[in-house]
# Entry
Amino acid sequence: MTDHLNESRELVAILNTVFHQLDRNHDNVLQAAELDGAVIDPALTAEFASAVAVLKAGFADIRELHKEGWFARKNGITLGDLLVFEKLLLMEEAAESERYDHLLGLTEHVRERVIEVARMKRDLYSNMSAPLESIVPDAIRQGMVGDCYFLAALGSVVATNPQIVTRIIKAHDDETFTVTFPGAREEPITVQAPGMVELSLYAQITQYGIWPAVLEKAYGQYLNNTKGYKHTVIPADATEAAQHVYESFDLLTGQMGRWQFLAELSDEDLSKSLTSSFREKRAVAAATYPSAKGDRDLTVDGIPAQHAYSVLAWNDKVGRLTLRNPWGAGAHAEPENSRHEPEDGRRDGVFNMNLDHLRRNFVALYYEDWLPDAQYV
# Structure
């Protein structure tokens, strides 16, 4: 308990400093735009990154902690909100609701994540001389934005043609990257290397390097530049539920794909489609049904509803697919009756399903249309 309080005191001191430094107009309100500029700052120290990440992740909850007055406009985190939050951290005010418990748990998780990121090498690939060793689906870990459609499509693509990533990303000596998506060759995107806060809150750094975060950041910037969505200071924020699976799939592959709704296919036809796709190394993604369990937002077998998944493999001999949740590990990342056992024993979001199991939980599959590999160059 003493260690926890000491850590909380350290965080409170940093939060005060960060608040006043970022409150540039000195109105005692930290607005989203003021905070977001710090989120993408690559020069933040680990201590400041921790505070900025906590304020960003908990922004909506923190700004509701203190009632400012009948006519006050709540357009950000006020100094009053911050003081209540600090009392919660120091256990000077009881956590009286699930919302408070959620905020405190989120704070602890985010701080741990920033500490972990600060200790890791932030190279594009873990093995720069052999990048294909790092371009694997397990490198992809979804963060706080709802861009499962993009990351699931990315996981499917790298499961079949990992070399595409090395062709898409060009690294520069000034810690920037130019990303040229095959589906938008005339619109290359150059982004700064993601900083500690971005790697903590968005597509997360793993032992495989930062390449998924670079692609997510470039994708967000592409949406900011071209799609007419609300522009954001943080590129990754632009990816929040912005498009459908097929649009990001087509952007990553450079060609149109097609949907297959499972209710319209016999097992024989579905098996043929999957067999030809994986024989020809065409990527496949899957989408789950809406919730079947009320407010739990889960399918009948306990996986997230209205969510996109990578399809990693198809065994036509036994009629079984291997799928992956872009969350990676985590609660409900895998079905309640999953029989997949990773070699290292970790929960990794990968699971197997036969066709009956698939039909109970998934509404459709999306297939990449095939072109010779030379077309990707």
In short: Residues 17 and 48 are 9 Å apart (CA to CA). The first strand starts at residue 29 and ends at 31.
